[in-house]
């Protein structure tokens, strides 16, 4: 007998999809998967009922990063590049985290991409720890921290703060990682045994190994549009596949150009977003109608038939889903 025939057959995502196709399709057709977008502040998300969201994937304006100074100061009334500006900006973000905590279902997850800021504050070079402040604020709201992801963004840019250059002791480490902080509302999410939508949402072993490792090496999206620092599609693609199921509701309270919503819709989730800047084309980019569940399942089957579960280059899979689900 050949070694291939002796090898046990691994039951993977493609088998799960094929076995439960009809039940999954029926369950998805019952849900309203049409995306919802509101062009106003997410400090109050009145349209989102309590405990109705399964996953939040977002990236807020980063306090003390210059590109967000004016927008944050306008919202808080406090000039940004100071201790007071840092506190006021985080108080604003914290009101949004409180709304996310309210909207999350038990066991739902809040994924926040945030970077620290290197800046002169009070005349001294400082690293302003946005990730630590967001973690403190979310824990104070009763959310539980999970292991965060370090998103290493390859950069060709020399460090703006070289400090003393080649001489100790006043040279500075380059800030080339951002955080993807993960928080959960209470304990692990409960599912009915053999829930078809959960089983049809499974990933392969290779995907699991890559996505659940703590350091992600994914190039940032090109910043042609310097007004909003969009996600590369790979970031919401991974987070949505890792942390939600087909048919779930995914919220982005700082939707920007709508990358999270666009990707979540193509993955058969209900996407909900808030954004205060009406000039980003968000409403044009995210289709208003629900995705066709048959197209979503066909795209998933085609993904696993093509890759056999192997991991492709960043953005490739996400872009294929975006193209396949009209
Ligand atoms: C880092 S960008 C998000 C980019 C997004 N991930 C994308 O892929 O395009 C942060 C966004 O939050 C928006 N924003 C700032 N304050 C807000 C608020 N109070 N409510 C809703 N959106 C807000 C900004 O206008 C900006 O577009």
Task: Explain what this protein looks like in three dimensions.
With 326 residues, the chain is α/β, with parallel strands linked by helices. The protein has a single domain (10-324), classed as Vaccinia Virus protein VP39 (Rossmann fold), CATH 3.40.50. Helix content is 36%, strand content 17%. The protein contains 13 helices and eleven strands. It has helices at 3-6, 13-19, 21-30, 69-76, 83-103, 130-140, 196-199, 205-211, 234-243, 259-266, 282-285, 293-307, 316-324, and strands at residues 36-38, 53-58, 104-114, 117-121, 124-128, 144-145, 149-152, 177-184, 215-217, 249-252, 270-274. The strands form two sheets. Strands 1, 2, 3, 6, 7, 8, 9, 10 and 11 form a nine-stranded mixed sheet that branches. A two-stranded antiparallel ribbon has the order 4-5. The longest helix has 21 residues, at 83-103. It is globular. The mean pLDDT is 92. S-adenosylmethionine binds at residues 41-43, 59-61, 71, 75, 228-231, 253-254, 256-257, 259, 274-277, 280.
């Amino acid at each position: 007998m050949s070694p291939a025939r002796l090898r046990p057959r691994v039951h993977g995502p493609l088998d799960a999809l094929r076995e439960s196709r009809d039940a999954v399709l029926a369950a998805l057709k019952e849900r309203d998967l049409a995306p919802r977008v509101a062009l106003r502040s997410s400090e109050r998300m009145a349209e989102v009922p309590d405990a109705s969201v399964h996953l939040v994937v977002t990236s807020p304006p980063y306090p003390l990063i210059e590109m967000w100074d004016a927008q944050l100061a306008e919202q808080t009334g406090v000039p940004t590049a100071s201790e007071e500006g840092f506190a006021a900006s985080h108080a604003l973000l914290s009101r949004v985290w409180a709304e996310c905590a309210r909207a999350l279902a038990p066991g739902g997850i809040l994924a926040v991409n945030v970077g620290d800021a290197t800046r002169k504050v009070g005349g001294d070079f400082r690293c302003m720890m946005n990730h630590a402040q967001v973690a403190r604020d979310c824990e104070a709201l009763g959310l539980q921290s999970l292991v965060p992801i370090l998103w290493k963004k390859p950069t060709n840019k020399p460090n703006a703060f070289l400090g003393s250059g080649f001489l100790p002791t006043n040279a500075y480490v380059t800030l080339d990682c951002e955080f993807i902080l993960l928080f959960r509302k209470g304990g692990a999410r409960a599912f009915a045994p053999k829930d078809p939508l959960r089983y049809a949402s499974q990933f392969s072993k290779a995907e699991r190994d890559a996505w659940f490792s703590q350091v992600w090496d994914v190039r940032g999206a090109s910043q042609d549009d310097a007004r909003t620092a969009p996600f590369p599609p790979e970031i919401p693609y991974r987070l949505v596949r890792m942390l939600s199921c087909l048919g779930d509701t995914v919220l982005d309270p700082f939707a920007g150009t709508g990358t999270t919503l666009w990707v979540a819709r193509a993955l058969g989730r209900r996407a909900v977003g808030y954004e205060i800047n009406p000039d980003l084309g968000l409403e044009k980019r995210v289709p208003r109608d629900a995705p066709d569940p048959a197209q979503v399942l066909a795209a998933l089957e085609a993904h696993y038939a093509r890759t056999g579960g192997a991991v492709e280059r960043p953005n490739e899979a996400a872009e294929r889903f975006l193209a396949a689900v009209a």
